[in-house]
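Friendly challenge for the regulars: who can give me the structure tokens for this chain first? No prize, just bragging rights.
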Amino acid sequence: MKKQTGKLSAFLKRKQIKPSAKVYFIDAMGAMALGLFATLLMSTILGTVADLTGGYCEFLRDIAGYAKSATGMAIGVAMAVALKAPPLVIYSCAVVGAMANAMGATIGGTAYSAGPAGIFFVVIIACELGKVVSKETKVDILVTPLTVLLSGYGAALLICPTVAYIMYYLGNFIGIATDFAPLLMGIIVSVVMGIVLTLPISSAAICAVVFSETVIAGSTAPEALYLAAGAAAVGCCCQMVGFAAISFRENGFGGLIAQGLGTSMLQMGNIIRKPVIWIPVIFSSAVCGALSTTLFKLKCAGVFAGMGTCGLVGPIGVLKYSGSSVTVWVGLLLLCVVLPAILSIACNEVLRKLRLVQTGDMKIDV
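First reply, four minutes later:
Bragging rights claimed.
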């Protein structure tokens, strides 16, 4: 038995198959976020720019269309690369990603795609099985792609409808709950999505499915779901701006830009060592999320809701779905920039007075 176990371990090691939460939910999901950013997110940004320029940049709309159509393929390739797959498996995963992105379920006469969430599970299965058979036969050029495509198709048929149902009903529940209790749900959604943004998983991928325009359109409370997505966008902004502000004395302007326009995920190592440093930005997320759904009623949707101030994508999304009235601009600046900084700094100073936080706790390499 030990000998067989040893052979299996040696085989998996040779194939670079290392099943673990880190490999799948950090490495692969992080790569999925990059694939999503390069396609669906850029598509939305370019389409928004085309709208704002009043028809002078229609070529951007064409590029946006091509970028959106490549979403599944890009995510499939990105994940396969992160899983250290051989070339034939990587190229085949482009097709698997496209299949999974298109499959889903029909609910109430409307087709709902499993989207990035479906792609994530399906590509992992197809990629790992492809790695198992890769270069094991003399006809590898046929066996490997065939294995990846067949296993990917089968996995998509089994998984994608279930994922689509779960995401649809989750989004519907959030919409109904937000309509019933906007204050409470503003706090919950803002805090949860802000935390997810800082964790090494993809908040953008989650929001792309739960707050997709298709799910919102089919929801029994579409306006409330737009508000919930707006709270998610605000919560993500609070995390990035908050950490950039309270760690300024340690990281200077380099850290301010890296976290404020890049990612608050840079603080993950420090959070693990000292979780108390997370309290100020979570507090700011709660306050700003409540104000978002009740006072300013900021709206958002899709991948925008999970990007925060990264490349100013979150604020762009809020403007896209909320309009550009004076109230929206005031709410956007206040809830996504000003209050997160002020509240986080104030709370952080209290923790410093209590000696729970010291200078150096939030130092990052920039």
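The mean pLDDT is 90. The CA atoms of residues 171 and 273 lie 34 Å apart. Your move, everyone else.
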